[in-house]
Amino acid sequence: MKRQILFLFTALLISAAGIAQSNNPIATASISPNPVESKATLTFDEPVHEEITVVIKDLTGKIISQIKPDTQGDACIAVRLDAVDSLRRGIYIIQITGASGKVKTLKFQKT
Question: What is the rounded distance in angstroms from the CA atom of residue 56 to the CA atom of residue 105?
Fold first, then answer.
């Protein structure tokens, strides 16, 4: 009986995680390569159909760059981050915010 309940609970958690992820493509964002030498790309496992803002910050929270990629028309699955080329060596934060209020935060290292 305990195994059945545990199995059911696990199945519900996996199902809920899948639903949450499919309704939030911003949550699937990743940056590559990491560490970054000169060019980087922000990619999404699922197409983003809403307006997003990408903010690059240093570790003190100072905004270094802000990008509003064009997500109208074709769904956005990748954003080139050309601004990282001019950054000094160090660790930076990327904050992706959707018009719906969904937020994803990533860290990357600039070499």
Answer: 10
